[in-house]
C-alpha cells in the first residue's frame, strides 16, 4: 500500500508538471514543424456530426451576364452556380470507411527513473532525461505530422536501386559488391524524399515484383541526404525476419532481389501489411493523393474523380515531360502554371497565402532558371507578401517575382516529393479534427495520474522466463495521439508541375 501511494505521488507530480508545460501548446507545437503544414489553417467550426462531415465547394460561377444595346431587352435566363460536396468520414471500427488519420506515440519510463527524477546529483550528471525523452517524442510527432501531408497514398518512402558493402561513410568509396552473410549494408534509394527517413527508424523492405517482404524490421543506422543512401543493420529487437517469420542474420535475399532487377520498396515497419494482398493505410488528404485523380479522395471514388460529375474537384496538373522522360524546368512551365493560377483565382496578383512548394532538386532548377529569365527571388521579409506570411504563420522562405505568376512565396520543404513543384493556395486547405473543441494532441486515459499505466511482463521478457508473463513490471507507459484530416475546398486553385528532372 505504501509503495503504491509513493508511485501515485511521483506520477501525479510528474504528470501535472508535464501537462502544465506541454498541453496548452501541443497543437501549435505540431504546426510549427514543417514548412508547408504550418500554413494550413485549423478549422474547429467544421463539425463531424455522427460518422461524417460534409464539405461543400463552389464549382461553377453564375455565368449569365450578357451584353446588349437593346435597353428594353429582358434579362437573360439565370445561370445558377454549381456546387459539389464530399464527405470526410469518421469510423474507428472500419478503416475502409474512415478518412481521419491517427498519429500515435508512446512514452515509457521505469520506477527507478521516476524516483531518481528528484535526485539533484543524478539530474546534474544525466540531465532531465525524462523531460528530454518527452520533448524528443513530441518532435517526432511533429515531424511525422509535417511529413504526412507529403506522403504518397500508400506511404512508400522510396525504392532501393543498389546495395553495397558497408565499409565507407561515402557511397562512391564503398566496396561495390555486397558480400554474403553481412549484417549491415549501404542502400541507394530513388524516388525518395530522404527527410522521411531518420537514424533509428525501423523499416520494411518489400519486393513489389515477387509480392513478398524480403526483410522486416531493419534498423536504419545512418542517413546520407547528399547521395540518397541509408546504412541498415539487422536487429534483434524488434527481430528482423522475412515474410515467413524466419530470423534473418544477413542481407543475402535483398541482394539477390536487387541483382534480379526486382522492385524493392521502403516502408516504415508495420505500415504495409500482408494479407491476401499487400495493403497500407491510405493517406486521403496528402498532396500526392490530392494531385492524382486515380486515387481516392476521401469519399469520392477514383472513378468519380475522373468522370464529368466530379471533374471540378480535380486540381490542375501540368505534365512537363509530356509523358516522355523527365525534363528540366523552363520558363514556359511557369507560364502555364501562371495561366492556371490566374484563371482559378481571378487575379495573378492575389498572392496572400499562395505558396510554391518544392524539394531541393527543383530549388536548384529555379536557381538555374533565374540566370536566363527576369525572375527575381527575395528573402521573405524583403517583400510585402513575404512579410504578411511571416507574421501570419512564421513563413521564412523567399518570394519569387515572375511576370506571369506575379509575386509568389517559395519554400523548400525537405518532405516534399521530388520531380514536382506545387503551387498551393493555402486559403483552400484546412486541418479538421473529429472532435471539435478538443485538444489537437491528447493522451489516452491511464490508470495513474490520468495518463500513466503500469505494464506487465510478457514473452519478450525472456530473461525472466515465461512463468512471469502477466505479472506487473516496473515499467510505466503513456500513449498519445492526434486525429486529423487535411481537406481542400478549392482544388482548381492548386497546381502541380510534374515530370521534372529530379537529378541532384
Q: What is the helical fraction, as a range of percent?
A: 10-25%
Main sheet attributes: strand count, strand direction, barrel closure? 7 strands, mixed
Give the termini distance in whole angstroms.
64 Å
Q: How many strand units?
A: 23
Q: Give the helix tally.
A: 11
* SS class: alpha+beta
Unreliable parts? 20-33
Architecture blueprint of SSEs:
Elements: H1 2-22, H2 26-32, E1 41-42, E2 52-60, E3 82-89, E4 101-110, H3 111-116, H4 120-126, H5 129-148, E5 158-164, E6 184-190, E7 202-207, E8 212-224, E9 229-234, H6 252-259, E10 264-268, E11 273-274, E12 278-279, H7 287-290, H8 302-306, E13 316-319, H9 331-345, E14 354-358, H10 360-370, E15 376-379, H11 384-393, E16 398-402, E17 406-412, E18 421-425, E19 429-432, E20 442-443, E21 453-456, E22 472-488, E23 495-498
Parallel strand pairs: 1-19, 13-23, 14-17
Antiparallel strand pairs: 2-3, 4-22, 5-6, 5-10, 6-9, 7-8, 7-10, 8-9, 11-12, 14-18, 15-16, 16-17, 18-23, 19-22, 20-22, 21-22
